[in-house]
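User: What would this chain look like folded?
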Amino acid sequence: MNTRIQNLIDGHHQHFGSDHSGIRLFRAPGRVNLIGEHTDYNDGFVFPVAIDRDVLLAATPRKNRQVRIHSLNDNTTVTFDLDQMQTPVETWGIYPYGVASVLIQQSIGLCGLDAVLHSTVPIGAGLSSSAALNMAVATMWTALSEVDLSGLVLARLCQQAENEYAGVNCGIMDPFISCLAQRGAALLIDCRSLDYESVMIQAPDHVLVITNSNKPRELADSAYNERRRQCEEGVRILSTQLGGIEALRDVSIEQFMMCKENLHPVVRSRCDHVISENQRVLDSVQALKRKDLRKFGQLMNASHDSLRDLYEVSCSELDFLVHIARETEGVLGSRMTGGGFGGCTVSLIEKAGIDQFEKVVKARYPEETGLQPDMYICEPAAGAEEVLF
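Assistant: Here's the prediction, encoded as structure tokens.
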């Protein structure tokens, strides 16, 4: 039994007085999107991977309908009653409260429970710490209540919980990958049909390194809404010239090249990114299937350049991190990941070059920006599951 699990079990005994004989463990991972940015709300393709940073819960059912969940991260406890639902005081409590609420709306009979949680997903880094928490809680609750739901249904319910109760307008990608990821693989998701395919990352000599810029994302919400409107305007104009166009996903690169001069320059740039990014996602899947990591890295680089120049959602801090990465030997590709204006980069790096990369970033980035980076070396992890111990 590892130290983290032992700490959870000890915490459960300390706060709820149980022995460990009836305790069950559940986990759900955070994620990073390898490629496919700002394509989701255009009915396009995304290619995320679950990371080996997760939310872990130790839980026991209760005979009544009271819920008590204690966090080892900040030593706070959330309590509420499933028969008299009142919003918890603790900020993070809205997540398990929201999950319980949407499950109850589905007429699912939930049991009360005592649980202790610990998260290793960095908060506020764009690695889906909230989706991991929601999915871990949903996985725990359905198992303890002996309810069998498909992964897709669970992902939709967790998305609903975050939209309606946490007030975060997240898409389906985050709960989807947190639930359905396969160890050692990325997940190609069609955001229109929700069809998906696991693609093995066969790269034993390489790792993914996530670098958090720690730049506050001040413009993200307003810029997101503006770009969404610009994409919709592009669809409106293109649909008058091309039949059967419901979203930018339906426009090929060849069709766009024929019609692009009819678009306002800014709208043209936004559409150019989304249409080419969708193709990059599909090309990156084929590159991984061929074990062509160099090509995959080139597509990552092209994605960042497009996000910087056409979609204009990067920032000087992210651009500098990418610049450092591309100058460092052993880095095959690097790009911003997430909504932009801050957050993280993801880089594909030869294992032999990790130490040098980390040394260079930690020396040059603070000197250039005045900010301290956080770096996470990640392995592709499995989706939500019960953990046997």
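The chain has a mean pLDDT of 94. If you want, I can go into more detail on any region.
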